[in-house]
Specification:
The chain has 183 residues and is α+β, with helices and mostly antiparallel strands. It has 5 helices and 5 strands; from the N terminus they run ααβαββαβαβ.
Length: 183
């Protein structure tokens, strides 16, 4: 093998220097830099979390006040009953009495199975358009407020007579149960 010229030795030296720098960068500097950048990102995340927690702590009194106000209003949206069956019966009775106020003809009422703290009931009735509107108005404006889950209207008589007549209506309602003690 022939000895290297001065120029070739310089090129080999520069190549070895570049290779040593790359090994130094990839082996030592890059992992340390990665650790510091990950720590900086984590620090920013923790700082944002801290700021968010400070805001939440500052709002605790207003949140507590809001919760107390909502607790006072709870009676507007729940029916008080000792168990689900009683709540279903109360809801069924509410459907019947509100229908009798508007003069509709009650066909059937059912108290459905309560699920997850909700009482459910349904009623089938024969009503006119005006009676239906008045019935829904009573149900929607009377406390405790309930949820009308479905309303089915069959107006077959209107096809035969050519004018709006009595309609078969089935309504399904539900309301949240607020358990009461039986003492």
């Amino acid at each position: 093998m022939k000895p290297l010229t001065a120029r070739e030795r310089k090129l080999v030296a520069i190549g070895l220097l570049i290779a040593a720098f790359a090994i130094f960068w990839l082996g030592l500097v890059s992992p340390i830099y990665g650790i510091f950048s990950a720590n900086a990102e984590r620090r920013i995340e923790l700082q944002q979390n801290y700021t968010q927690n400070e805001k939440l702590i500052a709002r605790i009194t207003s949140l507590r006040r809001t919760a107390e106000e909502q607790q006072k209003l709870q009676s507007r949206y729940t029916i008080k009953a000792t168990n689900a069956e009683q709540a279903g019966e109360l809801l069924k009775e509410r459907l019947e009495t509100s229908l009798s106020k508007v003069g509709g003809e009650l066909r059937t009422t059912e108290s459905d199975n309560a699920q997850n703290g909700w009482a459910q009931a349904s009623a089938t009735a024969l009503v006119s358009n005006e009676q239906l509107i008045a019935w829904l108005e009573i149900l929607n404006n009377q406390q405790p407020y309930l949820v009308v889950e479905s309303l089915n209207i069959v107006a077959d008589r209107a096809l035969n007579s050519g004018r709006l007549d009595l309609m078969d209506v089935k309504i399904e309602v539900s309301i949240i149960i607020s358990p009461t003690n039986t003492r």
